[in-house]
Design a protein that fits this description.
The two termini are 36 Å apart. The chain is 78% helix and 0% strand. It is an all-alpha fold and 257 residues long.
Amino acid sequence: MKTRIIWIIYTIALLSFLYIPIFMMVIQSFNDSKYLTEWQGFTLKWYSKLFESNEVWTSFMNSFSIALASALTSTFLGITLAYTYIRSKSKAYDFLDIAMYTPIIIPEIAEAVSLALFFYLSNISFGWYTVFIGHTAFNIAFAYFTLKAQLSLISKNVEDAALILGAKPLRVLFSVLLPIAMPAIFASMIITFTLSFDDFIKSVFTTEPGFPLLPILIWTRAARARATPDLNALATIMITISLCLASLYTYYMYRRS
């Protein structure tokens, strides 16, 4: 009985530690007062102020377009590499599996510095494409391992049976392989999109001052004026987007099961 009580207290304390700061930030984004210590009523003026800012909209669209492009590219390359590794019988492809761990293991700041140095030495102008390449180089590993886990469960006999029955290779790909792998594809898209959308370190090292991104904008405002109400509203919107994507994935998996 005592053990159960301790576990309940531990769980409540852990969840409180994780979610109370987020809950307070969301509440403050609707506070009419700009001071954290007083509540002057419900308001949406901070969101209105936020949407009137061209800087915020430009930063949001830049981050959104890069995250979407990076998620699509990472998932495509991830499923290609994972399928090649699983179906190949050559030991040489074991190197591919080991190499995919590198972007996950090494410190992100070291990878970001190496990317910035590479772009600088290659005389490549910093902007949308450099941020996209930086995010995608990091996301491919997450897409690869997410898709590899699903593809390894698909027996080769399923593809062979479709080919024996007369299906062309492209028909097997689009009618057999991709539908079975769709949960992992969906998960890969959500994971890589979220990682790219709020990535700060690589964004700082691969962008230029004239190309604003949402995580950098939040950091700049927080460093300049700490947690202002419009900053709380901006962070709340980012959390809402992430929660919507997670809920969409959970609903999809529930319907599929």
